[in-house]
Fold each of these.
Amino acid sequence: MAPLNAQEAMRNQYKIINYSDLGLPSVEVYGERFHYQDIYDLVGKSQFMTTFELKIDSLSFQEYGGSVLGVIFYDRKAISSLENSIQSGCEVPKERIRIDSPSREISEEKRGDVKYRGIRTEDIASISFLPFKRELETYDTGEKKVPDIIEIKVDCSDIDPDILNQNYLASKHKSGTELAQFEKEQLVGITLAFNNGSIDSRVLKTFGFTREDLKTNLEIWMSLYKVKERRNQMSDIDKKNYSEIEGILSLDKINRVAKELTATELAGTLRDSESGTIKNIFEMVKYFSPSILMHGEKQVYWDLDSYIHISLRHLKDYQVGGFKSKTPFPYKASDLRSLIEKVLHKVEVEVVAYFSSDPTSDFTRHGKMAIFYNGDHYHLRISASGRLVQFHTAGEAFNKSMHPTANASAD
């Protein structure tokens, strides 16, 4: 951040009061007219949480009230433009700043407006902020750590996971949550296992299944056999069927990975050094299970196809062939789910509003609407069903727009 008493570094004149001299970690800045680049120097670059006091009767005051609390929201192009202007000494003629506001004092619609349309800089009377910024945490290997992740060890030895899962899924359904397909399959499979293969046809209908589906849906049978296996209730026939189903589903996973790998034009570029990576890819897919990434009446989840699509393209440990040209996540593969959950949380209000509108198209955040989190911008796409379709850093698309001759391809 620019020195608070360095008025010569500012484009306009301000009165800056630093209360740290009084033992209070707070700064207030007053000015007749705020400059876009000065605001970046003061609070934007360091992403300080800021209160923007608005001039009485200004257009922004009429729209949002006396003040707006939040962090300035920049897309990658805006940050690049600002950094270049600072180095060159050029002006950036911006009249609006966009603010990512957590405040519940304004409506969801207004929060969306102030985030993507913004307020006029000329409407700002003063700003106040805490000059505090969390230091970036990294592993010894250089990858970033996902902030605010606390691991708590719990003794679950006396907990029956199947009863717990059945009660959890049934409770979610009764509360109005729309279960994901894999959750429905788990619930039906567990119920069948607990009732010796019997289930009420009304329960099947409730979750969109028919009696014919019970014969062909292998995921339901896998859920059933896992319950019986944990209870040591497997007959010889059960063990034989379980083994066959495992083999079929494993082959299906291999085929899905192989299909995704064809997009890399791997056949003509595979090196001996990449053969180990291919083995690791099949190993990590083998143990993947679909899960919920954002809870609510309408949930966001990822399934095997989501995981394969995202991992092969953007986890550096699994990039081969043409996928090596894509921007990798600056995180460990084991932190991917936590990263996605944190990024989704940044736009949770927007996702909930999207689902409540009974959508027919995908929810997307690309380009200027990319999601800023822990120093990076992210693009994502969620289908109307709640399935995470795409997730990657904004680096690829941004670099391609800034350098049209670049080889990096879009997701």
Amino acid sequence: MNNIYILTSGYKGGITTFVKQQIKYLKSNKNSINIIDNNPFVTFKDIPKKKLNLYSIGTNKNYISTYRKLNSIFLKKNNPGYVLITNYAIFVKFFFLFISLKKKNFKIILFIHSGLLNFTFKSYLAAILFSFACVRVDKLIFGSLSAKKWWHSKFPWFFKKSVIIYNGIKIQKKNYFKANYNLNSLNVSFVGRVELENNPYLFVDVARDSLRRGFNFKFNMFGDGNLLNDIRKYKFINFYGWQPLNKIIRNTDILLILSKVNNFPYAALEAKSFGIPVISCSEGDISRIIRNNQDGFLLKDSNINVIINHLLKVSNRYKYFRKSSLKNVKNFNVNLACTKLWSYINKN
């Protein structure tokens, strides 16, 4: 049995899905799992708590008190284990703590799923410090080639000893989705954090222009974030907040991903597994998920008219795009992804 410590920052989105997948996989292998998060009882409220230790600690603030609390948790069992860090800023903030744990035979594992999304002086300074400090981690794992390229392009001296291991999703045993979709009024959805990097205002513009032109789509937004209160004023969009996957699926016929960069999004993977076409104008490894003009479209720009025209292309051949979306999903099997990940982590 291994002691596993997973540090997260409480942000809902792809990283939360990633951590939940690791928890499920690790529990099946009889590991001792410890989750450290700003509010784990909310962030991970939908997972069974049996054989799971949850610690509510603000990993993004109160450095001195947090340092002491973390140190007591790691040393509590007096048994070294793996420390999994999901945010490079956490590693920078508690760098000396993690170095002291390495001396006690803990293994420090760091995951990077994207580049820097919000350029502020503070975040960029943290990124520069991390580009030098990451040489001290035991294993550095990227979630996509595009994320790795971003870090190496911005910081050429960046630690090069790393691997790329793509995420996966649960493969549905049967396709029970969408016997009741309405070709005359398809649901178009935004799924994710309502933040500037995900371009929610572009989604608003697409919805507005589409409805003005008389196209009978329904536009839905699933997620939460700093921009949600401002965007709620647009009454032609249905707002659901964060919802379980099954509710998102029931109310989504086409998924729109409009961020400028999206490395390997869970939303697109999950959409494919339920036969939902995806339209995106993002750069990044999302191109590994979408097969152009088969299960969706990967657009070269974010022109509103171009996006709407491709919505119409999908709606006019929806049954074909839906069927194509279900093909090739087995390549993204979460069990295979987790097995590969932990085989690498356990490798000397």
Amino acid sequence: MIKKINLFILTLVIIFMNTQYAYAYVHKNWAQAEVLKIIFRKLEVCTGSNALEWATKEVSYWLNERALTDEFCNEPAIIADYDKEVDVGSVKRGRAAANYGDTRNLKFGKTYTHARLTVSRKFIIKNLLDENGKGIDTGGSDETSNCKTKTLTDGMYGFNLPSAPSPNTWTEEVYKYDTIPVVDGADPDDTGPSEEMTVYYVNGISDDDDEDEYSKSYFCLDEECGTGGLGVWWYCFLEEGCSSGLNKGAIGMSIPTDQDNFIPKDDIVLIFKLKNPYTVKEIAPRLKLSFGTKKGVAVNEVGVSANRENNWVVDPEAKDGKCQFRMGYFHVLIQLRNGRKNGPKTGDWLGFEPG
């Protein structure tokens, strides 16, 4: 008699595609990631969570205060607690990309319903070129019809400007969490390669925050970051919140800010509800991770806003000719299955379809 295989399938979606207060992504597009390197820091499964209750009504400070508590992850069982960088973009669809952690901490008879995932705020992306060697077309000006990721340098933070202060402060290390660099658009006919580029989750607020309580990020408008402006980066959970953010998967997350005392500044903590609960039976289950990065790279041409009586007004026709890259959609399939050899073949997607 063939025993029924018990498993849970968890689809995690991290989306670096958020609205912000001073600029609008009027011209934007997504592309397959040829490279998408993510640093996993910790993975836990939980018997329950009330993260969604707080995410729908609380500000960044209170979300961050609870993100690492048992309130957000009831009776947490640690699967992994170490750093591991995985290039999920280099893996073909449906193939297991990494083994991460140990399931022996899961307790017999316990039913797990949620997961808590901690990742680094640093990501490395590279957009896949099309069959003609072209990059991503934002749908805006000709200058952004062939956007290609480019190696990030201190110069993109203003280090090389004559006005740069001394000692070296206008650098990636100093301003990586509160400055958003841009890249010059490639010539529309250029078929040169794209490059690996580092992007970060910048400091921001939740859609329920008072923007005056948090510092604003600097949005560069040229590749040397000599011109730009301040704006607030919003992170949202629900579609009705601000039509973006983590509303596609997470039910709670820590909001990266420069005023947080609860979450390590280099981390993001995400809470997800499992697609199906998993009850531990017999022996420790096997765990496999698979990934989808169909829209793993996002790029936009910034539409500049105007301040009219302290109200930011979007100019839908504004085009600056610069490509602003960020991480797009990142899908993870986590499979737990009974530790028997007659289970599903490694790498089966079992109904998961990357976006």
Amino acid sequence: MKIYESSQIYKYLKFICDIIKMFDYDSAKKENIPCNLCGEDNFLVLATRSKNNLDVQTCLCRNCGLIYINPRMTKGEYDNYYKYYYRIDRSNIKSKEEAGEEKNFENARKFGNDLATRLAQYLNSGLTVDIGSSIGGILYGLREIIPGLELLGVEPSVSESNHANLKGIKTINALFEDFATKPIGQASNILCVQTFNHLLDPRMFLEWSYKNLKSGGNLIIAVKNFRHQVRKAGFIEAGVQIDHPYMFAPETLKFFVEAVGFKVLYLDVDEYKNRKELWVQRQEGMHRGHIRIVAEKPENVSAGSNQVIMVPRVYRKLRLQLFRPYVKLYYFVFHSSRFGRVRKFFGV
């Protein structure tokens, strides 16, 4: 027994077991928050459980249609979660081990290649910052296609930021909310790929991006489409997880970006693409079920110049589309195997 106890393998396994044992969402400190987009505190409760059956309340703002967790873990709890527990928790949710870092890096590199190819006209040479850059694969892939990019990643996971630095991608280990207090100079591009719904203050991120971009610089966001996610599964809880404090539909994402002062140049939504389009997209390295948006910082316009106004039409539309019977019906018609032949016949 002493031989095993003294081995590095034993210590590593014990460390992993301690992490799993230590993370307890129910006992984590929580806070109540208003809507991050419009500031209102008037919401409809969409769900009270998460995908993995945690006690999580998901809300739809009655004023602007933003979807968010409320109450949610505090910043300190999220910081601790991302630093040590995130990957293990995600593996538990998926009921399988996630791919190793090298495999994840290669997948992200391929995605970065495809993103650079699709959005080449919007990627300016110069400083390119990726918020939530993980192991650096996306930035690495971008630079393979566009060599003139100066890369900087920001990643809260210790192991993933270390891996990125070893790959030659300069990466700062920090939550964005802490990193945002440091000057970075004027960036040509700011990316937030599969991270925007992880941020605790997306409005602050948008305002920070506006401030730190050059005039004519571009913001590129790729984020899961919550509506598409729940319709494809047939139930609301399928799109709810504690690492997504905010959730977006294309309408609210575009409105949010424009409300800060950006001009939307490009909007790509997977939601209504047919199976062949999505298959080709996946083969090229691009994720499915997402929203991709490119927004420019226009010249001589101040951040926040577009005031947030009430948009009840967005709320009413999402309230209907996320009504549980409607979600279930949509799933049966467009995603269930029962209607597979009918969809194939019509090419859907």
